[in-house]
Amino acid sequence: MFTLSNARLETLEGVARPSYDRSQVSVGIMHFGVGGFHRAHQAMYLDQLMNEGRALDWGICGVGVMPGDTRMKEALDAQDGLYTLVVKHADGGYDARVIGSIVDYMYAPSDPEAVIERMASEAIRIVSLTVTEGGYNLHHVTGEFNTAAPDIQHDLEPGATPKTTFGLVCEALRRRLERGLAPFTVMSCDNIQGNGDVARTMFTAFAELKAPEVARWMNETVCFPNSMVDRITPVTTDEDRQALEQRFGITDRWPVVCEPFTQWVLEDHFNQGRPPFDAVGVQVVDDVMPYELMKLRLLNASHQALTYFGYLAGYRYAHEVCQDPLFVEFLLDYMNEEATPTLSPVPGVDLEAYKHTLIERFANPEIRDTLARLCAESSDRIPKWLLPVVREQLECDGDIARSAAVVASWARYAEGVDEAGAPIDIVDRLKDDLMASAAKNRDDALSFLRNRDVFGDLIDEPRFVEAYLWALERLHTDGARATLDALQKR
User: Fold this and answer.
1) What is the pLDDT of residues 185-210, one digit of tens each?
2) Which of 235, 291, 331, 345 could form a disulfide with 228 if both were Cys (CB 3.0 to 4.6 A apart)?
3) Rg, C-alpha atoms of the chain
4) Given the DSSP bridges, would you call strands 27-32 and 227-230 parallel, antiparallel or unpaired?
């Protein structure tokens, strides 16, 4: 078996590998949140550029902040930052390539000062983020920065050693201001509408509380480009590691598996330049909004539409759901009748073709994207992806029946037991509150919907409430499949 390392890279055969000299790559990007998606997306695009002899001064230094990030550091350190990206095609074909654009990894809790100083150095021109929806610390209803989080409270104390991404980034910017250095760009790559705008609001809000002079400087000089990112990247399994060994003879502690499709639409708004991403297929545009709304309301919201219904019905993988005609019809009707009316024209995109491509992507049996993964952290996802569709449709008297049914399916899922009586492991930062509300569903059908921190004022919308109650009652009495069938006939 071939174990990944710089020393052995030249001897690797049968798999694409970096054609550039990694010793000549210098770090220009610090990235918070090195997970599967980042390594299948941003790091992959940079590796493509480096293979063309470009962007060798834009190498990535990963940064871990959460306790679980120690596993990623151990895996990457053991392999000199190298890892294998495996693209799984629907016909069973595999493409594998070794990615070399991550050249360092720092675990902030072990040495926060070193992380801050690295970011404060002139070489760092971009700080990028894939910290998930919950990593931005915003209140779902008010949209304001949540100062009550314990680690935020710690970082706001005078003289505190930063624990959070906010504390680390803002202290690095403070030092750059103090030293007369230009600021780096903060580039969000998370699935959030207006991700750059959200990042600006949250980081600036923290800075206003911690160091107002830094906040003023950020408002005047720091760029926060918006972007839309897309590539289905399921959790790596032991079976994936074993398949990599069997097919390609590579032992990799943490390979990444993904679908063939990839897309990145990026606003061209940077403080100190950027890699020539457009040379490797990134769409660099003036306005990302039409693209991100398309993705959030069609792809991401459709994932939520299939996942709870599918899980309750006994499916465990997205491809199983999207090979079932009943579910496919439901998803397409949601996209056509509820999501699409809320979208503006998307330059260069055929929306009808895009929607059918989504179904094909979801149905790829090789990806084996688990419904459990798609069900996780729903309290972060539903308010950002699905509820904006509901609100816009309510304003124009549009159809909301399917969206309301999705919310009802989440409420039924949060009861913690599927239709066969098997327990469901709810993964959500609000797990206790959600499950407590859902436990009352059969006695108080509006219990789940009363959580205004999640749903805002939707409980005050009679048309939505009526549709929600209709779906929840049928989920309880008839089950998921019968509910979808009845919904399609209404």
Assistant:
1) 999 999 888 999 999 999 999 999 99
2) 291
3) 23
4) unpaired
Residues 361/363/368/372 CA torsion (nearest 10 deg): 100
Of residues 48, 28, 368, 353, the one with CA closest to residue 232: 368
Burial (Cβ within 10 Å: 0-12, 13-18, ≥19) of residue 206? buried
Alpha carbons 448 and 438: distance in angstroms, whole number: 5
CATH superfamily of 289-489: N-(1-d-carboxylethyl)-l-norvaline Dehydrogenase; domain 2 (1.10.1040.10)
At 355, is the secondary structure helix, strand, or coil?
helix
* pLDDT per position as a tens digit, 430-456: 999 999 999 999 999 999 999 998 999
H or E element in which residue 32 lies? strand 27-32
Residue 475 amino acid letter: L
- Torsion angles phi and psi, residue 103, rounded to 5: -110, -5
Q: How many helices (H) and strands (E) does the chain have?
A: 22, 13
Evaluate if pTM is beyond 0.85: yes
Give the pair of three-digit tokens for residue 127.
């700080």
Instruction: Count the alpha carbons within 13 Å of 458 in the hemisphere toward its beta carbon.
Output: 34
Q: Which CATH superfamily hosts domain 2-285?
A: NAD(P)-binding Rossmann-like Domain (3.40.50.720)
**How far apart are alpha carbons 91 and 336 in whole angstroms?**
28
Separation between Cα atoms, residue 15 and residue 97, nearest integer Å: 6
Helix (H) or strand (E) holding 452: helix 452-455
